Every structure is written in structure tokens, then in C-alpha cells.
Amino acid sequence: METKDVILELRTKRGLSQDDLAEKVMVTRQAVSRWENGETVPNTDTLKLLSKEFDVSINTLLGEPRKLICQCCGMPLEDAAVMGRDSDGALNEDYCKWCYADGTYTYSNMDDLIDVCVKNMVGENFTEEQARAYMKELLPKLDYWKRYESLSDGGQFEAFKRQLIDEINDLQIEGMPHFERLNALVGKFVNLEYRLPNGMNVKFLDDEKTYLGNQLECEFGGDRYFGVLADMDFILISTYEAEGTNPELVLYKKR
Prior knowledge:
five-stranded antiparallel sheet; alpha+beta; 19% strand; two-stranded antiparallel ribbon; 36% helix; 11 helices; single chain
């Protein structure tokens, strides 16, 4: 699709008139009409406003002319659902939501990121050794790692993760081992439904938000795992069987 078709489709799906859209992105109705007739395309600033208004990437607005990949981990960014977001909620098409969440870069150590990625890459096409070698060659070529010194926060996020890890270990949950790492996890994939004592089934997470967490084997053995999830506001600890089945809430604590 061309830009003119994309804008027309998004506008009509939202039930907006050309006047309505013009008001939202601070242009004239005639400007919107020219976009949809293919006479002109929005400038960069207006594309950003349209991206935020329709919650799609600028790449989508332009008819997806570029193949986007996360500039931290190299994952293909094939649609807006996997893209990170800036602190104001706008999509950021340079990063995936695992590497960049609400304006924060979640990885400061390349080896930690490689360890996480390799677990998801091993399969029919990649051995662990091949996956690790591939990532070690790829990551230094990506923009985030090339500009790490200017993009990083000076260790503030790592200090926050360290504080969270200490808080969670200090809870001394019976059977849960001491751990040293929290990874970025998207709510959609870890938002389990727990049954409360009153019989209600409850989910605690936002599917679209990125959290910090880890999965740990129980010290007593068996087929259940501990799941740890946290952010600025809470700590959640649960147990479950393989693939998150039969979850039980152990602790939900406001910070």
C-alpha cells in the first residue's frame, strides 16, 4: 500500500472525517485531502503525530518501505505489536519492546542479552554454539551497541534491577533459590490468571507492558517452577507447571 491508501484506511477505520484528522494533527483539511489523493506526503513532524494518533509505526504510514530490526537485539520488527515505546507512549521503530520499554533501555550487558536470545534461537536451524556465534557477530554492528556510551543511562537501570533482585532474595520464599538476574518480559507472555481464595480469577499484568522477571526451578525438585515478576510498583511471585499451567500466586507485594 502507498502512503495515501494507508492514511485513508486508518482514518476511515477510526470513523474520522478529513476535518477531524486535520484538527488532531494540526494541519488543514486540504492537506489531508492532498495526502489521500497522493499529491503530497506528510512531513516528518506530522508523520510522528499520525503515528501516535493511529498507534502505528512511521514505517507503516510510509507503506513499509524498510525492513526494520531491533537495534539492540536484531529481532525483526514486522509490526507495531513488538515495537518498543517512548516514555510518552509513542512507538519507537528502532527497538523491540523487550529491549526498550517506556523510554528505558533494558539491557546494558551484551553477554546477558546473548544468553537470553540464544535460549529462544536454539532449534532445527541453530545449535546453541551457532546461535551464540551469530549473536556475537551481529550485536556489535547494531546502533545501540555502537552508540552505547551516549545512549546508556550511566548504570541507573542496572542499579534499579540490582535493588529489585536484593529485595526479592530478602523475601526468603521457601523453596525458591537465590538468583542474580532479571530479564525483560512482555506482559502478554507472562500474564497468568490466578484463582483467589474468594473464587475470583485475576490477572495482575498489562499485556502491552514490559516487566522484569525470571523463571527458577524449585529447590525441592518436582515439576513446578517459581516465576518472579516486578516493576517500579510491585513484586509478584508465583509457582506453575510447564508452559505456565496450573499457576498459584505465592506473593503480590506493593513496593
